[in-house]
Design a protein that fits this description.
This protein is an alpha+beta fold and 465 residues long. It folds into 2 domains: 176 residues, Beta Polymerase, domain 2; 166 residues, cca-adding enzyme, domain 2, CATH 1.10.3090. 48% of the residues lie in helices and 10% in strands. It has 23 helices and 13 strands. The strands form 3 sheets. A 9-stranded mixed sheet has the order 1-2-11-10-3-4-7-6-5. A two-stranded antiparallel ribbon has the order 8-9. The two termini are 47 Å apart. The relative contact order is 0.07. It binds adenosine-5'-triphosphate and magnesium ion.
Length: 465
């Protein structure tokens, strides 16, 4: 009764304890039970604690559980050094050169375990000429580890043994009010690591959290600092953003904040053409839908979609100066891919699949003779057909073409025979008796792939993480 009265008078604060600068929030206030933590992550915190170390679930997982979302993974923070963690868990390995983390393995699950780190004081920090931190790999204590994180919501520590949350930056209150707030001075933190601007956009879009005004304010002035971030890191962040399940929302936010220049250079051009914009938005929406349905998403497909209208205009330009369609398409693809290479490092390993998807597109137009059946047997048919459907939906090609292929691929042989159009190409070829004439309309078949970039799952490795 008294407890209830206190609660009414003082709100939830009667339940929290304050130790030093840390608020400790008990389970009956925050509501996250230990059975929400994956068994492997629990084994890691239990094992480390039994060996006498501090160990907590930290970062995105705690935030997601408080928001009633399913965490992507469970990261652990501890005061044990990587070597000490290794000694506690036989099946573990130290990874990373710049900052060493331990991967602890339990069956299928890998639990990333990192030692508390501290932010390096400005006088000893190693930065580039724009103030970007080049290293942040000093061990520290829990409080210092909280301070070096980006947002208050990402700096909460959950102890599965007593189910308490340790909060140094009022992150719990921010999560409760759906606020994404930068720890410390936002301008300083963006200068140290400009990728935090992209994280602000991605996390606010993904979690439906509002960017606190002081956190949002410096972005407009500081966005050019993204130009100094190594390309590989930008690409990692772009992939996280595009594969977050909220790509459409993220790209819209990037555009609203004028952050997309130089980041997705293709968007600068494409989004200016109404047809290109519609196509890109549909591709993003389609990716989000696939992720929500638990289907696989291929970065190569997504990049191929993002660059398609660029390829189309280059293809047209080459044909306008008299090049034959096939040669013009090859030239256009190479031109677009080389241009992208110079701006953002889309890894070359995706090129083969992207080219295959593009090269197969004109072949959907050919609906006579044996060509449609041959196209069906292409290993990339399914992806190329999905790509065609996006083109239909965006209004670039007649939707009848998509409907035709939809029926043709599942039709019985006699229905297929009825559906085939008169075989003009074959007639032309017979008339001319020149094998090269077919090349004008029939595009080369994709060669077997050296590497299967399409099926590849992307390992996203946040360089500073
Ligand atoms: P997601 O759900 O997308 O994985 P996340 O917040 O867990 O979101 P991670 O990239 O997995 O993102 O990073 C884990 C944690 O590491 C973050 O919650 C944050 O505390 C810290 N972190 C990651 N990137 C940065 C950064 N650039 N600056 C400071 N802290 C960072
Ligand atoms: Mg994470």
């Amino acid at each position: 009764m008294i407890k209830k009265l206190f609660k009414r008078v003082f709100g939830k604060s009667v339940h929290t304890r304050i130790e030093g600068r840390c608020h400790i929030i008990p389970q009956d206030v925050h509501g996250v039970r230990r059975d929400k933590i994956s068994p492997a992550a629990r084994k890691v915190t239990d094992g480390l604690q039994a060996a006498g170390y501090a160990a907590f679930v930290v970062g995105g997982a705690v935030r997601d559980l408080l928001l009633d979302r399913h965490p992507k993974d469970f990261d652990i923070a501890t005061d044990a050094t990587p070597e000490e963690v290794r000694r506690v868990f036989r099946r573990s390995r130290i990874i990373g050169r710049r900052f060493r983390l331990v991967h602890v393995l339990f069956g299928e699950e890998t639990v990333e375990t990192s030692t508390f780190r501290r932010m390096i004081e400005s006088e000893e920090a190693e930065t580039d000429e724009h103030g970007r931190l080049l290293r942040d790999n000093q061990f520290g204590d829990q409080e210092q580890d909280a301070a070096r994180r980006d947002f208050t919501a990402n700096a909460l520590f959950y102890d599965p043994s007593n189910q308490e949350i340790y909060d140094y930056h009022d992150g719990y209150a921010d999560v409760c009010s759906n606020t994404l707030r930068m720890i410390g001075d936002p301008a300083v933190r963006y200068r140290e690591d400009p990728v935090r601007m992209l994280r602000a956009v991605r996390l606010s879009a993904k979690l439906g959290m509002n960017l606190e005004p002081a956190t949002a304010a410096p972005i407009a002035k500081m966005k050019d600092l993204l130009g100094n971030v190594p390309q590989a890191r930008l690409l990692d962040e772009m992939l996280k953003l595009l594969l977050s399940g909220h790509a459409l929302e993220c790209v819209k936010k990037l555009r609203d904040m004028d952050l997309h220049h130089g980041l997705l250079p293709m968007l600068d051009v494409i989004l200016k053409q109404p047809m290109g914009e519609r196509f890109v938005m549909l591709a993003l929406q389609n990716t989000d839908l696939r992720i929500h349905e638990g289907k696989s998403v291929s970065p190569a497909f997504l990049f191929a979609a993002l660059l398609w209208h660029d390829v189309l205009s280059a293809w047209k330009a080459h044909q306008d100066v008299g090049e034959r369609p096939v040669a013009a398409l090859h030239a256009a693809m190479d031109e677009v891919l080389n241009r992208q290479q110079a701006q953002i490092a889309i890894p070359r390993r995706y090129d083969t699949v992207m080219k295959e998807l593009w090269l197969l597109q004109p072949r959907f137009e050919q609906r006579g003779g044996q060509r449609p059946v041959r196209l069906l047997s292409q290993p990339r048919f399914r992806a190329a057909y999905d790509f065609l459907l996006l083109r239909c939906e965006s209004g670039e090609v007649d939707s009848q073409l998509g409907l035709w292929w939809d029926e043709f691929q599942d039709a019985a042989d006699d229905r297929r025979a009825e559906m085939l159009l008169p075989d003009d190409v074959a007639k032309k070829r017979r008339r001319r008796k020149k094998p090269s004439a077919t090349a004008q309309v029939e595009l080369p078949m994709g060669q077997p792939l050296a590497s299967d970039a399409f099926a590849e799952t992307v390992m996203i490795d946040d360089a500073l993480h």
